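TL;DR need structure tokens for one chain.
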Amino acid sequence: MKLTALVFTTKLLTMLAASQAADAPKEITNSIGMKLMRVEPGSFLMGQDGPPADYQTTRHADRCDQADWDEKPAHRVKITTAFYVGSTEVTNAQYRQFKPGRNPKDEDDEAAIFVNWNDAMKFCEWLSAKEGRTYRLPTEAEWEYACRAGTTTLFHTGDQLPDGFQKWKFNDKFLKRFFPKTMKYPSEYRDWPAEAPLRVGQTPPNAWGLFDMHGNVAEWCLDWYGPYEAGEQIDPVGRVDGDFRVMRGGSHSEFTRMLRSAHRSGRLPEMANEQTGFRVVLGEPPKTAPLPVPPPPLNALDVSQAAPDHIEKIAKPFFSGPKPFVKVPPNMAGPMFSNHNHSPAIAECPNGDLLAVWFSCGDEGGPELADLASRLRRGASEWEPASPFWDGPDINDHAPKLWFDGDRTLFFFAKSFAGDIVRTSTDSGATWSKARLIQPEVEIGNMPLRIREGFLLLPLDRNRLDASFTISRDGGQSWSAAPGHGKPDLRPGGQGEHFAGIHNATVQLADGRLMALGRFDTSEDQEKFHMHTPVSYSSDLGKTWSYEESPFPAISTVQRAVLLRLHEGPLLLCSFTDQLRDWAKRKGMSFKAADETEFTGYGLFAALSFDEGKTWPVQKLITPGGPDRTVPGVDHNEFTLGDTMAEPSGYLSVCQTRDDLIQLISSKNHYVFNLAWLKELPPAPKR
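>> reply
TL;DR here they are.
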């Protein structure tokens, strides 16, 4: 009897719930004029399986039938409770009732933009208090379920997105960002308006009455971003913590493939720009427990916290390398990419390990670009395989930099979407602080530098005529950009408010001045310095600069020099004898051998100055010498290494460890040497 009664009660409750659902209005309009549509419980296949996105060539950058790595595995999800969701994104008219006077020039019926996750949550809290019922952001699962509206295709419109759904904002910034140099700008974009109108509800809704689920602006979700897990899930709510909050739907001025129903993205909760907006849900949040944070990557596993007991310094000449530190398996297309690995940084950890980071991608202009890391543990002879380090979902995390303060703190900097970020670690990179935005989005040009006043300087590249730095006077807590607005006279003897060139390698001289060696990419600019590397000097912390011609050859694409004051006092410059683009007709430089003869060498070299950069009497090719042989270089390229041949290209990064060894990396290889080796003349090349 008890079992029969239980079955009857269950059926009755089910019937009552169905009756209440049938009686519930399909759409409602709330107190601020927002229309919301009812979404009934159900299940769907979340995510997209299939081949990985082909980022190996830009011609496939907008292939919608290819899934990103983080959309897998596709998995069954049940939504057990009905909810109401805004039929459109929150508009300016609705948002101004929360924040009166905000963006008065924006049209009332356009989606509210420049809204970060925190402010979107505050809007929901305000609306909840106003009406006495719960408004919130949708979970990621609720968002995709509502977007699909019962479909299983790439878009709720089918496997193609009809004309009119995608919008592009035409200006040079967007063209350069979304269409890399390797692609031609389609001619039809030239005819598009300078502003993408963000009016909501201008394209047909999906089957459940929801507009703009593909494009217009990207929409915040409630969840912390993290990888999917296999198996059926019920009312999932994402991870318990993370760096990024999920964004869905894609935005104007993005590839169509980023507007698919399954496509995932994410941003720091503090980030806001002209592509970020949100829509709201009316209904209590799921009671599901969030998933734990993902396990740490290899570079953060089992990191020793013991400081070296004894640091032995090698007095005799020492050289080792080149040894690859970039170890990415072939045919990888996310989160690590086998196609292009470049722009590294290296730092010693408090525990004596070496940590290297670099970016990995299919195309430098693509949103898939992520930062990887490898660790050379103290006492080990081989770098570990690459593993993920920092990856804003669909954020081009460019120009990563590392710096060790010599005590206990590692700093990581990167150019990220809508701003540059900094993270810190006090446990040798086992864990990192949450990222902080420190300035608008600008490429970080070269290695950080601490000057004797205690300030931290971070070189920046805005463009080839606008390079400067940002400065922190409080140990990295706050940052401010150095002044620099006028167009400088970038010629020897000229004056200006910027570095000469980009990717400037910078040191502080004994007299307090800053000295920086830069790079010009165009022959027109290089001719100003007679095809030599320019030197910039500033005696007022970057307010003004003067320019001179260095004795070293100009460098260009796929090359970046480094400049470092060694523990022993001299200045060390590492650069290249010839531009990579002129490698076939290389001229090289003259180097001295142990028998006092001179020979012409090519590629990576080091130079020492003992008089604060006035002269560079020691110049040496960075090679172990020996018979010519083929060695892997950046990406899938190879180079000849021998007595007179060194690595021809790469972005360099350098640090000097506490044992006085100089740790130099290119975009592929690791070299180790000391001051004694630099001073020692090499044997004369064998003819």
